[in-house]
Specification:
66 residues, mainly alpha, membrane, elongated
């Protein structure tokens, strides 16, 4: 395609066509990508938090029984 072809195609559109045109922008969401190290770290941190919560709850229940 040459520059002359581009200018000829541009001449096909008039100002009236542009005024009547509906401008619609559609963006597809990008897929969420997480590196393997970050995903592994999040899983390990969640497990550790669960263990700490369970140990804390057991410790509180043991103290409340005394």
């Amino acid at each position: 395609m040459t520059a002359e072809d581009t200018f000829q195609d541009a001449d096909l559109y008039t100002d009236e066509d542009l005024e009547e045109a509906d401008i619609v922008e559609w963006y597809e969401a990008r897929p969420v990508t997480v590196p393997a190290a970050v995903a592994t770290g999040a899983i390990v941190a969640a497990f550790a938090f669960g263990v700490l919560t369970a140990v804390g709850a057991l410790a509180l229940m043991g103290r409340l029984d005394d």
